Amino acid sequence: MHTRTAVAPWVLCVVALAYGCDGSSEAPNPGASGGSSGTAAYGGASSQGGTAGGGPSCWRPFNDQSPWNTPIAGTAAVASDSATLIADFSSIAGQTAFWINIQDYSIPVYWVDSAVTPMVTVSASLGGTGFRTGAADDSIAAGSGLAPIPSGATPAAGSDRHLAVVDRGAHREWGFWDANQTSTGWTAGEASTMDLAGDGVRPPERNSPWWAGHGPRACGFSLIAGLITADELRCAAIEHALVVAYPHIRSRYYTPPASTAQGTTSDALPTRGIPCGGHIQLDPSLDVTTLGLTPTGLLIARALQKYGAFIGDYSGAVSLYADASADAQAYWGGGVLGNGDAQGIPLGRFRLLEVGTTYDNGN
Questions:
Q1: Among 351, 244, 241, 341, which Cα is nearest to 291's?
Q2: Residues pairing with 194 in the sheet
Q3: Exposed site from 113, 204, 241, 351, fewest CB < 10 Å?
Q4: Average pLDDT over the chain, rounded to whole?
Q5: Closest among 166, 75, 106, 116 to 315, alpha carbons compared
Q6: What is the DSSP track for 47-81?
Q7: What is the CA radius of gyration of the chain?
Q8: What distance, in Å, lies between the first and last C-alpha atoms of the chain?
Q9: How far is CA 26 from CA 104, 134, 183, in A?
Q10: pLDDT of residue 317
Q11: CA nearest neighbour of 286 among 268, 273, 302, 274
């Protein structure tokens, strides 16, 4: 394991400001009902950006060389401590099955044409890429920037208040954590853009400038990365890795494609768990047709075999994520996707792939 020394104290203060001292995501409530009050117009099946394996209309973010879009090789090496870490991953008391975050603690996506949708100013406590206006130098965390947030956009229910705005034609995401619209405009705890035509990987936060490594998730990921969307289910194929969050994510350490680490909490400790960016794969020899899954559950299971999932955040449950916009939720509610559709996928049948360079941000 390759590590680095802890970052300077002022950077730790920035991390605490952006993500909170008690970790990133709150636990989803499996009994919750209701949904987002957002009014996003879902993008439909047409594609403005790249394509996925399901066909020409099946858009997915990032280029084909992205770790999010690269199928796992049959010869992929398994981490030496995979069995121990997966045993912990699959046996957390009360959290032994996947829960798909939809109604709260997920990501509402607003699809826009940024050449048409008016730009608004967003002031961020931690201004990442695209939100550095007003920051005199790299010692200043706060910054502002412009984003095409449509009228009526509503952040996710729950304390994380994530919000994603995506222009597929311009290959860009504007991502926000702790987004709020006030009488004087939009604010966010963290705001950053992502080039969706690139590989979807930010530079490690250890690099200069440090703020370029920060994103709206605890592990630095963009919000569209690993998200289940309505378009791809209409195409009957999820052609990318998913993002997973769980209670025992390892704090302090991260490995690419992650660019930051989860903060230490009573659940997330530096002495156990898989770190940000860890890549897990559902046993490819498992016959997923025997698991009693729904059609969407089968698509999820096959994606977890072909592409796997990256550890991306803390959650009080073992969580996957689906688009939480109002129109997406209406589509899910038609029998397409439910919170429990992946519960039949056995967590104990995952394996952790070999972990590469690991960084220590002292968080």
A1: 341
A2: 173
A3: 113
A4: 88
A5: 106
A6: -SS--BTTBTT---SS-TTSTTTPPPPTTPPBPTT
A7: 19
A8: 17
A9: 10, 31, 27
A10: 98
A11: 302
